Amino acid sequence: MSSPKNSEIRVRFAPSPTGFLHVGGLRTALFNYLFARKNNGSFVLRIEDTDRKRYIPGAQENLINTFKQMGLDYDEGPVIGGNFGPYIQSERTEHYQKYAQELIDKGAAYYCFCTEKRLNKLRDEARQRNETVMYDGACRNLSQEEVQKKLADNVPHVVRLKIPKEGTTVFYDVVRERVEVENALVDDQVIIKSDGFPTYHLANVVDDHLMKISHVIRGEEWLISVPKHIFMYESLGWKVPKFVHLPLLLNPDKTKLSKRQGDVAVEDYLAKGYLPEALINFVAILGWHAKEDRELYTLDELVKVFSLKRISKSGAVFDVEKLNWMNGWYLRNLSLDYIAEKAKSYFEEAGLDVSNTEKYLKVVDNARNRSATIPEMITHSEMFYNDLEFSDKHKKITNTEVAKRLYEFWIEKLESTDDLSEEFIKMLIKETTEKLGLKGKDLYFPLRLALFGDVHGPDIPMIVDILGREEVIARLNSILHR
């Protein structure tokens, strides 16, 4: 029986259903998950679907499915529910309207009636002056009469925060430690859009409060928004949660990780044959490290060693070569049956017959020791299933009289025995050297070509074991009578 949850620790991952899960999102979700599990807290999944223009049907279901594939189970959220639902923001709009009105009533927010044309002009002028784009506060001090008249006339409007323009906001971030921001540099953020839906800022603050979130663990790009969020918490008389802002993920050239330089969706990597275990391990060490000097961790091991204090301030490079190395390690070290099951659909798609389970498992075991990803395993396996093709260079090696004597000798020996053990094949190789005077390249190149289609590859005993006696004899006969 599991012990009761620590109600003091509640974290959330709050993605937008605007596409596939970004690897940066996976890291954020993972760090929230690890912190919750380490402290016996609750891990909440909340869907932020208030940006209706970017909403993609099916994205929420895809995201939940990706969570399952990655082994990240959440305690509260869509489908499974919980005590603080609903967990989809478009189903919680009455909360946002209520607290937006409370902010207005307290003088912490105001109606803004500026047209899109005027706002675009402000943006263009600021950019021409090389200045940060900020709202100029034109509607900040409208009289109550002006506001009521515009509302009565149904003039399109948004609601903005009324950020104090004097003083500073000081807060503590677990990663960045003490942060101080001049209030004059903080924009009067829109919190309710003209369509009545909240922006990220209001919805997050309201939901984090109502869902009793204790730690807000998210990407560094939101650090600049903290003063706005603190202003809302304090204006509404709410306790401010602890903030943890994770370092940026970077391309190898140290630019921010983006699609322009490669895949960024978790599904892209899963489709390419990367294992969930490797992806979890890889993103865990992007901007975090344990006390001990090691990099390979299972999910359960990560839970035991994870600490927010060991998150780095500096950006973390997403190094695909390292991911390949790590994935290769998991291919070699996870159970053979598990890898075979993961690889099955890739083999079938490549037209390779996996119905002979004994042979298939042997093929997978050979290929996984030579590969970084599952598709790479296919390239190390096709020659065990398909007819072999030879280049002119290879034909010169297999067509010699010496090679033919070699093939005839092996056919004769194999037809007279059922023994294909490693010991027997090694003895046969030794006997070939003694009887035919062949060794080194003169022995291995023509033999490996006849059986495997390449001069390089697995050891001869392994090739023979995978192919089986009949197929070995058939391949030797085929090349002998070509």
Task: Describe this structure as you would to a colleague.
The chain is mainly α. Among the domains are: 91-246, Rossmann fold; 392-481, Arc Repressor Mutant, subunit A (Orthogonal Bundle), CATH 1.10.10.350. The chain has helices at residues 23-38, 59-70, 93-105, 116-128, 144-152, 200-210, 226-235, 266-271, 276-284, 299-305, 320-333, 336-349, 357-368, 374-379, 392-398, 401-415, 422-436, 441-452, 460-467, 469-480; strands spanning 10-13, 42-45, 109-112, 158-161, 168-173, 177-182, 190-192, 215-219, 242-246, 249-250, 316-317. The strands form five sheets. A three-stranded antiparallel beta sheet has the order 3-4-7. Strands 1-2 form a two-stranded parallel sheet. Helix 3 (93-105) packs across helix 6 and helix 18 packs parallel to helix 19 (460-467). It is elongated.
Describe the structure in brief.
With 482 residues, the protein is mainly α. Among the domains are: 91-246, 3-Layer(aba) Sandwich (Rossmann fold), CATH 3.40.50; 392-481, Arc Repressor Mutant, subunit A, CATH 1.10.10. It has helices at 23-38, 59-70, 93-105, 116-128, 144-152, 200-210, 226-235, 266-271, 276-284, 299-305, 320-333, 336-349, 357-368, 374-379, 392-398, 401-415, 422-436, 441-452, 460-467, 469-480, and strands spanning 10-13, 42-45, 109-112, 158-161, 168-173, 177-182, 190-192, 215-219, 242-246, 249-250, 316-317.
Strand content: 5-15%
First CA to last CA: what distance? 68 Å
- Tally of contiguous helical segments: 20
CATH superfamily of the domain at 91-246: HUPs
Return the structural class. Answer: mainly alpha
Architecture of the domain at 91-246, according to CATH?
3-Layer(aba) Sandwich
CATH class of the domain at 91-246: Alpha Beta
Rg: 32 Å
Biggest β-sheet: strands ordered side by side in the sheet: 3-4-7
Mean pLDDT: 92
State the share of residues found in helices, binned by percent: 40-55%
Strand tally is: 11
* Spans of at least 5 consecutive residues with low confidence: none
CATH level-3 fold name of the domain at 91-246: Rossmann fold
Largest sheet: 3 strands, antiparallel
Query: In one word, what is the shape?
Result: elongated
